[in-house]
Amino acid sequence: MKKLAILIYSLGGGGAERVLITLLPYLQKKFEVHVFLLDDKNSYGIEIDYEVIGSSKSTESSILKFLKIPFLAFLYARKLKKEGITLSLSLLNRPNYINILAAWFAPMTSIISEHATPSKQYRGNSLGALISRWLIRFLYPKARHIIAVSYGVKNDLEQHFNIVPSLITTIYNPFDIQEIHELGQKTSTRIQELQSFKQKRNILVAIGRLDSGKNHRFLINAIALFKQRYTAIAPPLLIILGEGALKDMLIGLISENKLEDCVILEGFVPNPYPYIALADATICSSLYEGFLNVLVESLALGIPAISSNCPSGPKEILKSQKDGYSCEREITQYGVLYPIMSASTLNEQECLDILVHILYEIHIGIITFDKTQLRKRAEDFDKNIINKLYFEILNKSYS
Asked: Please, is 109 exposed, middle or buried when counting C-beta atoms within 10 Å of its C-beta (0-12, 13-18, 19+)?
């Protein structure tokens, strides 16, 4: 059986990690798969055999991360050579850099998967951003092939990093739709507690790392504005699932606006689907994305999605009919897109006004969705379709 190495930063709670967990059972039928991590972390608690390369932590400085890349690439190449592996797939930026450089130390083919919109993720002139943009421009063209998780990501790589279109294939993220349905039906004491809120108010669920890119601060401010503007209506209950560096800041913002009864920081939850199934809508406020898994997971459970119209992913998943990133909201068959400051000419207050009005119209029933249509759209991303596309790229690249 052909051998395949897969390199990812960790098995922490993130979208790319979920992609790997979904892909792995299928790929293990086609290849002898060896999984390698840079950080020994397994938040999902799933039994996967893996080996850790070096010792890396997300808290390391940009300079240290940069300096360690050649050393980690050498270690990775040595392990692959020892195992007789000549094909490697990586997910996320730093594993991608290491995967490509490893080909300098051993005979191997590097396939990389880009899960963000790099020009947005690494905007600005900080040292980390400058290093990352340089590494993408220098290293990515040297990969055998690049898998972009949305057409927006593909366009970003072509336009901002001068990567030739023929090197990039767009493959959306895979989802186990049947498993999402089954996991969404699981209940717990906590879910039952939250269920009691639905009698009085809408429930919104946001999922993602507590970092600046996910922009949870914006959502908390929107709840505060809703509470201030519509005094006769119980404001939505916002439940945020995730952990991250901005947790203390968000707790402070909740306290400052006296929103303890309106916003709950639930932490990382291995099975978020009962929370989504409980919600009236999922809500996302990201400044940038590559794909945004929670939108598909929401649709799979028949729950509409409210998302910032950020680069890239949301407009493709929700099937926007408008070109570019509009300054207006757009109601599609599958959810609502609203503008954010980083992708429009509006200021933050104008964006908040639009989102709060959307929440109001959902509350009073002006905006509604057909659950059957939502679930049908999610089936376009079923793993049985997507997994085969990954296999085609990997099998074609095997040497």
From this structure: middle
State how far the alpha carbon of 144 is from the alpha carbons of 23, 65, 196, 284, 304, in Å: 20, 24, 53, 34, 38
pLDDT tens-digit map of 276-312: 999 999 999 999 999 999 999 999 999 999 999 999 9
- In the predicted structure, residue 178 carries a pLDDT above the cut 80: yes
- In the DSSP assignment, the letter for residue 118 is H
Please report where in the chains the tokens 């730093």 appear, as a residue: 94
pLDDT reported for residue 58 = 65
List the 305-308 sheet strands across, edge first. Answer: 263-267, 237-241, 203-207, 281-284, 305-308, 335-338, 330-331
Token readout for 322 is 């408008």
Q: Are 36 and 50 in contact (CB under 8 A)?
A: yes
What's the mean pLDDT in 54-80? 85
Going by C-beta distance under 8 Å and a sequence separation of 6 or more, which residues neighbour residue 171?
147, 148, 149, 386, 389, 390, 393
Say if residues 208 and 284 touch (Cβ distance below 8 Å). yes
pLDDT 10s digits, 240-278: 999 999 999 999 999 999 999 999 999 999 899 999 999
Distance from chain centroid for Cα 236: 24
Contact 17, 10 (CB under 8 A): yes
Question: What is the β-pairing status of strands 330-331 and 335-338?
Answer: antiparallel
Cα separation, 44 vs 367, whole angstroms: 35
Q: What is the DSSP string of 227-240?
A: HHH-TTSPPPEEEE
User: Pairing mode, if any, of strands 203-207 and 281-284?
Assistant: parallel
C-alpha–C-alpha distance, residues 146 and 167, integer Å: 6
pLDDT at 159: 96
φ, ψ of residue 160 in degrees (nearest 5): -100, -15
Going from the C-alpha of 244 to that of each of 210, 214, 374, the distances in angstroms are 4, 10, 30
Residue that is written with structure tokens 């376009």 in the block = 380
To the nearest whole number, what is the mean pLDDT of the chain? 94
pTM for the full predicted model:
0.93
Q: What was the pLDDT predicted at 399?
A: 55
> What contacts 24+ positions apart, CB below 8 Å, involve 233-236?
233/360, 233/363, 234/200, 234/201, 235/201, 235/262, 236/201, 236/202, 236/203, 236/204, 236/262, 236/280, 236/359, 236/363
Rounded Cα gap, residues 379 and 177, in angstroms: 7
Q: Read off the tokens for 151.
A: 């057409």
